[in-house]
Automatic annotation (TrEMBL):
Superkingdom, taxonomy of origin: Bacteria
Pfam families: DUF5753, HTH_31
Protein name according to UniProt: Helix-turn-helix domain-containing protein
GO MF assignments: DNA binding
Length: 276
């Protein structure tokens, strides 16, 4: 049993022993039923303010607050603290929809690309930590490559193709890898042309996670922070905007052909042509 699962079960046992429903337990807190249910099932870590709330309501004398640190330390690998919940949730998702205006999504990145991304944000990172981050990111490749992975839509801005993030041969390999994975038909790419004009999500990376028996969530991320959004109304509003973005993007067949052509151009020492 994982550490988050252990403390989630403990919270549920103490709450039910106190005769409290989810709603009654959450009174005077800012959390919703689905969020608490995920914690009790070990699918999310308990935040410190909710742990303190639990200690007050259940009279547990600081038990949950003291053990928040155990849960925090139990997160796996070198991923950022704010990404820990997403790591658990993506294992349960049945569909993932992603938008990235500047980068190839993490699980699709090869080592040279990963190193370039990390060093752009953390230029003083040690080789040991850098190697750990590369390994952890590559370990998430299953999200797009395994036969049992969630079905995914990946919408990328055109600039992802022609921005020379790496030397031409490495960019060619990276884009060819993207094509190879997409041809497995577990993930479907769409390219947003640079001449499209104003469009939804003219902002940072966003990801929608859909579950079989739980409400959908949205995750958005900046350079040094990330946020899970679980408010149903807000998630629905963002989801409608994502639908409009997909409708304005190129279809998957055309998009895959463009990625493949960009890889070939890099391989031939050319800068890939921008879409007209």
């Amino acid at each position: 049993m994982s550490v988050p699962t252990f403390y989630g079960k403990e919270l549920r046992w103490k709450r039910e022993a106190a005769g409290l429903s989810l709603e009654a337990f959450l009174e005077s807190s800012f959390y919703g039923k689905s969020y608490l249910s995920d914690i009790e099932h070990g699918q999310r870590r308990m935040p410190l303010d909710l742990a303190r709330h639990a200690d007050r309501v259940l009279g547990t004398d600081g038990f949950f607050e003291r053990h928040c640190e155990d849960v925090r330390k139990a997160r796996k690998g070198s991923h950022a603290e704010y990404f820990a919940d997403v790591l658990e949730l993506e294992k349960q998702a049945v569909e993932i929809e992603e938008w990235d205006p500047m980068l190839i999504p993490g699980p699709l990145q090869l080592e040279p690309y990963i190193r370039a991304v990390i060093l752009s944000a953390y230029p003083s990172e040690s080789e040991e930590v850098l190697a750990a981050k590369v390994a952890d990111r590559r370990a998430r490749a299953w999200l797009f490559e395994d036969t049992a992975s969630p079905e995914s839509w990946v919408v990328l801005h055109e600039s992802v193709l022609w921005q020379p993030f790496l030397p031409p041969d490495e960019m060619a390999e990276q884009l060819a890898h993207l094509v190879e994975v997409m041809r497995k038909r577990r993930a479907f790419p769409q390219i947003v042309p640079r001449n499209m004009g104003p469009h939804p999500f003219m902002m940072g990376m966003s990801r929608f996670l859909t579950f079989r028996d739980a409400p959908p969530l949205m995750y958005t991320e900046g350079m040094y922070h990330g946020q899970l959004i679980d408010d149903p109304g807000l998630v629905k509003q963002y989801s409608r905007a994502y639908g409009r973005l997909r409708a304005a993007a190129l279809d998957p067949v055309t998009s895959l052909r463009l990625i493949e052509q960009a890889a070939e151009d890099y391989r031939n020492g050319k800068h890939p042509g921008r879409l007209e």
